[in-house]
Design brief:
338 residues; alpha+beta; 4-stranded antiparallel β-sheet; 3-stranded mixed β-sheet; 12 helices; 14 strands; binds zinc ion
Amino acid sequence: MTGTIYLLTDKLTREKKHVCSDCVHLVEACFVCGLPVRKDFVRLPDDRFLCARDAKHAVLDTSDAKSICKEVREDLDKLFSRFMTFPTNVEIAIVDRVNLLALFKIPGNDFECPNVLGYFRSTTNRHQVRLEISLMSALRAAELKSTCAHEYSHAWVFDNVSEERRQNLGRDAQEGFCELVGYLLMDAQQEDDQKQAVLRNQYTHGQIDLFIQAEKRFGFNEIVDWMKYGVDAELSADNCRDVDIPRGARVSAIGASSYEEKPSPAPDKLVLKGISWTASRPLAIINNQSFAPGESGKVRVGATNVSIRCLTVQTNSARILILGSGEELELSLNRIEK
Ligand SMILES: [Zn+2]
Ligand SMILES: [Zn+2]
């Protein structure tokens, strides 16, 4: 027995850990932190190991994982209501690693996403399109959420980006877009560790950083335009606005909500119709207009216009000032009860 002490990096916390030579040669390493597991570990049916610390945060129960995915779906709808409508016909499965990896090996299986924590695929059978998301079991809750959001974004791309554009869109750009959606969801939920994990992950070859920059600079609208109508295969520092939008597509392309496409009578009072919460700026959609905090503008109320200023935007409400009367109002999101 030698006295050598090895230095390993905890893949989760990035801390350096000293490990003795006996432990470094243990074959079993924790799936999350990569450190050798000694005692008090969890062995999963697919032969992954989790150290005691990381097992505590893993979502081990399939029905828990599925209900987290359901919440993700609702949160995505809320967060991106101005920009995207996610397809509803998506089936979610929680699979173990053996099954997930096996799916990559089936010849002719047309994978849309090679993320090893999950995948999205579409299959067509007698003109019936099925959209399926598979997510690896025993992920940490935040990792499961951002992976689920990532795969839902593939489903959105499949449903909303023309076949022609999808063929010309680089794989890294498509992955970068899906990572961005997961990143913004994590941002809205203050999951800073998972945001860092997304940034550290190299698998979009830098596209995620460019997507984050473009989102901050131009807003999510323009990202959606670029995904649908962009000229280039990959996003660069300055090509987000190089788009070729067909005539007539502009209204839906900019994600203007359906009330602009199908004019409906203006509400007869001030109504908070939605909130979009992104890294760069929260926006409150009030009647027919969206407002960042501090912005003023006119909104349609019944047959007249009312000038308001948006004071603050919270996740479920916005505070506004009616400029004519000086009255302050708190508008809350009218959540549809299920
Ligand atoms: Zn661990
Ligand atoms: Zn992907």
